[in-house]
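Posting this for the archive.
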Amino acid sequence: MSDSKYFTFPLDNLRTLNVFFGGRGIGKTFNFLKECVYKCKQTGRKFMYFRETEKIVQMVVAGNSIFNPIKEVDSSFPDIELISEKGFFTISEVNRISEDKKKFEIIQELGYVVAISTFHNARGLSFEDVDYIIFDEFIPEEGTVKRKNMDMLFLNMLETVNRNRELEGKPPVTVIMLTNANSPYSEYLSVFGIDEIIDKMQEATDQELQTTYDDGEIYVSFVSNAHFRNLKKNTFLYRRAKSQKFLAMALDNQFSVNTALIKKNPNMVKSKPILCVGSATTYVLYELSDDTLIWRKGFNKGCIFYNIDNKQELMLFRFYFTDRLRRLYISGSMFFDSIYTMREVLEMGSIL
């Protein structure tokens, strides 16, 4: 990270899948939109800017709002228009040909603005000229309605864009996922095992968050900038706000997560599996030798399994266990192997 006011990260340093957590207003979206526009303008290739829903896309498109801040800072940045076409919006460099600037001619198409929730409408179209995908604000704020099966829509979108590139000896599309540190919970992360990566990043330094992970294909970064933070903390909102949860998230990339019930390495000697629950990902409840319980990610074929994709089995699980699990959770007698296991089990049990 440079000492400049805003976040900078060159496209050439990216891996195949890249996840950036960053403080509010640090310039994550600004950087990658600008980089992608200049790169695609030079190469003749394209990029895609994704948000989760069509409603959000419509709001973003209004007034070219995602590109205006760049134009204000960089006078040489091309004039960009978002044009409704093919069921989504094209990102095009244009030349204005009227005084009111409403009439224009297209110089070059640079990319698309699309919603994950409606991208299935574009199946059958070719995106072989797309090199980069930016998925912005992929973790909604706490309290936002959680939409089902968005992870599958995300994976299907990547399959549609990639097609058989790697089978033909071509590199896969580069994915850039951007979010604030509102929450570490995201099905978009869990489908690639990145929830476990983040969990280990935290564990590796005794709960002090490791800032980067890089295995050559996946890159995870918790973006920090001391110069920007010091500027930001002296503005009105951050001087006067009393919510430590908000300040920790917005300034310091810290998740607000209760880790008191997390046991990383419990003594499993003489433990007994009680039940298993889940769907694509499953969790086993064990009774430990000290009479406490722990949920661990995994599967045990020796105990009853509740498939939550089956409505009747989910209702049975909640009927038999929700009240018991809630009492154990409140009393501190039930533990979990990670914050992700805790979140999923409590949601499945309708405890959250």
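The two ends are 37 Å apart (CA to CA). The mean pLDDT is 85.
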